[in-house]
Design a protein that fits this description.
It comes from Caldimicrobium thiodismutans. The chain starts with a helix and ends in a 6-residue tail after the last helix. The chain is elongated and about 80 Å long. The chain has helices spanning about 1-30, 90-120, 135-140, 160-170, 225-255, 265-275, 280-295, 305-320, 325-355; strands spanning about 35-50, 55-70, 120-125, 130, 150, 155, 175-180, 185-190, 195-200, 205-210, 215, 220. The protein is α+β, with helices and mostly antiparallel strands. The chain contains nine helices and twelve strands. Strand 1 and strand 2 form a beta hairpin. Helix 2 crosses helix 5.
């Protein structure tokens, strides 16, 4: 339980802080006065003013926040230095400040993956049969423990993950052909898969091809150079960004059930589980969650960064800002939506706890 709690504090604290740091640096670059940059929320423990900004350490270490001069509609009547006020910057400048938060999350994920690839290399499970299940299609075809799978349907594979991916690419495979190395011999096997109930990466029930083999527990760490590490890190960030947007689309269309969403308790459980697996698993989890945080903040909902960007685009098209009354109404609607979503994901968390989840 202590590991889970500490891991949760680190994950949420660091990722929200990184997000706010992006806003902070962009605001400074655009000439906006940053009144407060706080690590943590709640009551101030202590602070230090440097230049125009008070740097605070606050009581609750779950992230942080920045307070920009002239940011909120109600503060505009009292703005004296319009050249330093957020509200008086151009829509393009305000957009850069707002989008810098999600970009900081993506950049953090890139650095995390780069660290993993640089130190561990490219990690994968070798395509070696670790176990053949009794009476399975693989056993009937003649596969045995220790066989190394070289090809599936004529396509070379390098890892066990490649094998699973190729099998799931086509619906209702009638037959697969495996080229296998057994000792010094190269053998071919034709196998008709069975299908079993399972779920895809989005949690949707589906039929999964099954031939009855399991991988070994061995992991291969293939060393890569700096340029390859940069490429692999960028590709991983891109892949997970597109995957997150796809998951959101499936939620909106009803293809992905809302019950799959999780809140702080779910995050805490996975944070604790990854921490127990080791530092690299924990860093990888932080990277994935950072990408999720960045993508979610880009959604065009009021109160989120994406909602602000929509407003700035409207301002640019109108060539004048929205009225204070309109802005206040938009943010009130956004607050209601955010509260509603928060209650819903917290409900999902409670259901999981009551149906058997345990926080260690």
């Amino acid at each position: 339980m202590i590991i889970t709690l500490l891991a949760t504090l680190v994950v949420i604290g660091v990722l929200v802080f990184i997000h706010e740091l992006g806003h902070f640096l962009a605001a400074k670059k655009m000439g906006v006065k940053v009144e407060i940059f706080s690590f943590g929320f709640g009551p101030k423990l202590f602070g230090l003013t440097i230049g125009e900004t008070e740097y605070r350490i606050s009581l609750i270490p779950l992230g942080g926040y920045v307070k920009l001069y002239g940011e909120h509609p109600e503060s505009l009547p009292s703005v004296a230095e319009t050249n330093k006020a957020f509200a008086f910057k151009s829509p393009f400048q305000k957009t850069l400040i707002v989008v810098a938060g999600p970009l900081a999350n993506f950049f953090f994920a890139f650095l995390a993956f780069f660290l993993i690839f640089s130190l561990l290399g490219k990690t994968y499970t070798p395509p070696i049969v670790g176990e053949v299940l009794k009476d399975s299609p693989a056993e009937k075809a003649g596969l045995i423990k220790g066989d190394k799978i070289l090809e599936i349907n004529g396509k070379e594979i390098k890892s066990f993950e490649d094998l699973l991916l190729e099998m799931r690419k086509e619906e209702k495979l009638q037959e697969i052909e495996l080229k296998v190395k057994r000792g010094e011999k190269i053998l071919s096997f034709k196998i008709t898969p069975m299908y079993m109930d399972g779920t895809n990466i989005f949690g949707k029930k589906t039929q999964i091809p099954f031939i009855g083999i399991r991988a070994t527990s061995e992991l291969v760490h293939e060393k890569v150079g700096p340029l390859t590490a940069i490429y692999l890190s960028a590709k991983k960030v891109y892949d997970f960004i597109t995957l997150t947007f796809l998951a959101i689309y499936k939620l909106l269309t009803g293809e992905l059930p809302f019950s799959t969403l999780g809140g702080p308790i779910t995050i805490g459980k996975f944070a604790g589980d990854s921490a127990r697996l080791g530092i690299f698993a924990f860093i990888s989890f932080m990277a994935l969650l950072s990408i999720n945080l960045g993508v979610l903040n880009l959604l065009p909902l009021p109160m989120l960064d994406g909602g602000h960007i929509v407003i700035f685009i409207i301002e640019a098209l109108r060539r004048k800002p929205l009225s204070l009354k309109t802005q206040e109404l938009i943010f009130k609607i956004g607050l209601i939506i955010i509260i509603g979503l928060s209650i819903a994901v917290f409900y999902n968390d409670l259901v999981r706890l009551l149906t058997g989840w345990k926080l260690h």
